[in-house]
Amino acid sequence: MQSILIKDKKQLKVAVRRILECISGQKIIAFYGQMGAGKTTIIKAICKLLGATDLISSPTFTIINEYRRKSESALYHIDLYRIKKAVELYDIGIEEYLSGTSYCFIEWPELVEDMLPEGSIRVDITVGDNEQRILRVS
Fold first, then answer.
1. Which of 3, 39, 50, 80 could serve as 31's disulfide partner, Cβ 3.0–4.6 Å?
2. Structurally, how many domains does the chain consist of?
């Protein structure tokens, strides 16, 4: 497990680089944390660093956002906050995203935990003192 401290937003870019070093090529990354912990902000920064050319926004209502990159496979940003039953995961085709070769960043992954492929990365985000964020990557 790797711990990463983000003291303020100025350190976000450095923290995101460290996350990418920690995941060492793994493509499925599940983000855990309370509402407002910064899951979306961190995923946006990762997508930007990975070369997303589209406007990066929260997929809270669309459930899944696809971001294109110039020369590589797309990035997928999935927000399962509004999904209440596991059966709904199949309706959105979650298996295809989890078995693909593209990066897949998942917020609120609790319902899909049993479906995550072996080697998936878990990022736990905790809010510390003075709005710091503590990330545990495992």
1. 39
2. 1
